[in-house]
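$ ./design --mode recover --in tokens.txt
reading tokens...
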């Protein structure tokens, strides 16, 4: 500095940084001015006091002022507070979730800086602006305060949300006022379409696109229509639109006009609007009429699509209408004459006709002779000879079939047709082909529990009853001796031309063996048999002539009954006694036990006595001879009284032993006899139960 300033400070203190010296510059250098600085004790914060002296000397004059820090600080505080007031008055009261106008102050690669009148500038990300719409410095745009201050201390703004809120308020006004809004269908989604209205996506349900069902949703994509807002969710910001409601309002006026003019019998032109299983809806120019499936054609149809197609223009006849319910019934077949007019001249009885099989039921086949005219071939009229279980065995849907007209009922509109009548009836000459009592060959066609059907020739079957299959075998089911497809020799027993039945026999080809059988197998005769089967209660044996007999278990020897399967073997031959013969039931009851020869038993008084017993019981009577022996023994004791007591005792014991032995022997014989009687009674009881 050109000026020299002398500061007198406390030697222990340095010059304060905030000393301010005001210098008045002159042309000449001022003289050295001594500055006296007074020391002051400062409590807490040291302060430096400055004194001002005015010096005028030398060629230059300079006024030097020394200010106190307190005076200068007070002056600066006043200026600062005034500036703060001015600055704060220029700021806006900004909060989150509100819209405001901001001025672009800077544009970078990623962000745009806006001044919205707040303490700090806000940031809008550049990707919120479309290409070509990027603002310039100084432009004013509306933004939405998204975040007042993020973690980096920045205020985040959004132009996109501001645009949305501005549009959303307008949409709410339109919804409240039931105004229509224009929108462009952007894309197809599940359940409907996405529509762009004023830059916001809205949902258009599939059922609200048009007044008629939509089959091609993609055809609406990219098109612009008028819509009505039917639902608005403030919380979720969802919008649901409807185009159908607007169309229905327009159609209602046209519908009322059409209904007031039409009458039954009118022929109108319309467009097929919708096709269902039960009929067709035809647009008559604002009014839909129903063309029922039964009024489409005089003939049989399975679905309306066989007659009409979607968007096809057709001429229909009004057959009924209800102005109050706004319903119109239409007919298409009514435009042509009824096909049953003059039907008897078209298809006379006994004439041969050709038609298409249109339906197959369990009871017959329906043949379409022309549209609206069908005849029935009953299942009984399909074949003279074949047993038809279902008409599908002969006919198929869509097949061209010939038939003979059997009868016509014009009132019931029924035609009876016959298929078998196209060929001669083979049963008319059946008696010339097959004779009673003659033998023929046939093929087993079917087997039933009660008999066998045998095919004699194509379409001619005979029947063999189960009892006519064998003379001697007791057959439970025909499959025991015949198989399906087996060739069989049969004899014609009878022919019933009226009922179309031929009764056949198999056993009649051979001679009846029963006269000879009855001469051999008489009750009581001893015959030979071979074991074929062992059952739980009987043993089955084979006899001559292919006969079979049974042996009840009660007729098996007692020792063999406990385990018949071990004592009797398959294939074993044995002698048997004939107990019973039944020709009707082809049954032979035999006995093994009674066919075994009995051994002779020793004769004696006890045996003779036991043989003459007429009945047996649990009580055993002591024979008289035994009693006499005991009495004789007692008498003998008395006569030998002189024998010593010891000898007498020994002799008595010997005699008693002999007597007891005799009694025991006789008792054993008696018990055996009783057992035989009991066994015989048991066998008799078993036979009765059998």
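writing sequence...
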């Amino acid at each position: 500095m050109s000026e020299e300033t002398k500061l007198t400070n406390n030697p222990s203190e340095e010059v304060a940084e905030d000393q301010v010296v005001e210098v008045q510059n002159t042309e000449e250098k001022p003289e050295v001015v001594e500055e006296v600085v007074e020391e002051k004790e400062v409590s807490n914060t040291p302060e430096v006091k400055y004194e001002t002296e005015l010096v005028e000397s030398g060629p230059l004059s300079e006024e030097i002022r020394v200010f106190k820090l307190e005076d200068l600080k007070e002056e600066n505080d006043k200026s600062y507070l005034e500036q703060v007031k001015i600055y704060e008055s220029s700021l806006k009261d900004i909060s989150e979730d509100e819209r405001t106008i901001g001025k672009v102050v800077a544009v970078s690669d990623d962000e745009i800086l806006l001044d919205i009148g707040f303490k700090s500038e806000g940031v809008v990300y550049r990707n919120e602006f479309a290409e070509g719409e990027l603002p310039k410095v100084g432009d004013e745009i509306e933004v939405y305060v998204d975040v007042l201050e993020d973690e980096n201390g920045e205020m985040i703004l959004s132009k996109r949300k501001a645009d949305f809120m501005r549009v959303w308020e307008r949409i709410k006004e339109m919804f409240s006022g039931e105004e229509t809004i224009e929108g462009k269908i952007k894309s197809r989604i599940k359940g409907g379409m996405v529509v762009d209205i004023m830059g916001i996506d809205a949902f258009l349900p599939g059922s609200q696109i048009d007044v008629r069902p939509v089959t091609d949703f993609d055809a609406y994509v990219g098109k612009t229509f008028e819509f009505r807002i039917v639902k608005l969710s403030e919380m979720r910001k969802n919008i649901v639109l409807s185009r159908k409601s607007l169309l229905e309002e327009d159609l209602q006026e046209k519908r009322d006009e059409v209904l007031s003019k039409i009458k039954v019998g009118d022929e109108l032109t319309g467009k097929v609007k919708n096709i269902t299983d039960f009929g067709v809806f035809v647009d008559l120019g604002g009014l839909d009429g129903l063309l029922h499936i039964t009024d489409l054609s005089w003939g049989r149809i399975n679905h309306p699509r066989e007659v009409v197609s979607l968007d096809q223009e057709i001429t229909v006849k009004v057959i009924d209408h209800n102005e109050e319910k706004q319903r119109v019934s239409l007919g298409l077949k009514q435009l042509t004459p009824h096909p049953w007019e003059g039907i008897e001249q078209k298809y006379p009885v006994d004439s041969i006709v050709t038609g298409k099989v249109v339906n197959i039921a369990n009871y017959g086949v329906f043949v379409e002779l022309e549209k609206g005219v069908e005849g029935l071939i009953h299942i009984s009229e399909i074949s003279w000879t074949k047993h038809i279980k279902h008409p599908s065995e002969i006919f198929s849907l869509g097949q061209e079939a010939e038939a003979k007209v059997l009868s016509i009922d014009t009132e019931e509109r029924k035609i009876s047709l016959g298929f078998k009548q196209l060929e001669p009836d083979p049963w008319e000459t059946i008696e010339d082909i097959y004779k009673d009592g003659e033998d023929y060959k046939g093929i087993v066609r079917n087997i039933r529990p009660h008999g066998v059907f045998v095919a004699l020739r194509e379409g001619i079957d005979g029947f063999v009853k189960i009892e006519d299959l064998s003379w001697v075998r007791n057959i439970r089911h025909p499959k025991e001796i015949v198989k399906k497809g087996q060739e069989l020799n049969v004899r014609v027993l009878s022919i019933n031309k009226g009922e179309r039945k031929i009764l056949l026999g198999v056993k009649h080809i051979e001679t009846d063996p029963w006269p000879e059988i009855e001469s051999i197998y008489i009750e009581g005769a001893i015959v030979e048999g071979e074991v074929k089967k062992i059952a739980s209660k009987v043993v089955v044996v084979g006899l001559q002539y292919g006969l079979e007999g049974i042996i009840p278990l009660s007729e098996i020897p007692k020792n063999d009954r406990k385990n018949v399967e071990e004592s009797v073997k398959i294939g074993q031959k044995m002698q048997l006694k004939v107990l019973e013969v039944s020709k009707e039931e082809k049954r032979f009851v035999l006995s093994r036990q009674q066919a075994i020869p009995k051994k002779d038993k020793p004769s004696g008084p006890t045996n003779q006595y036991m043989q003459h017993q007429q009945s047996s019981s649990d009580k055993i009577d002591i024979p008289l001879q035994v009693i006499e022996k005991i009495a004789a023994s007692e008498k003998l004791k008395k006569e030998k009284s002189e024998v010593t007591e010891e000898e007498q005792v020994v002799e008595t014991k010997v005699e008693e032993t002999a007597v007891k032995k005799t009694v025991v022997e006789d008792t054993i014989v008696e018990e055996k006899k009783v057992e035989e009687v009991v066994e015989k009674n048991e066998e008799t009881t078993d036979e009765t139960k059998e």
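exit 0
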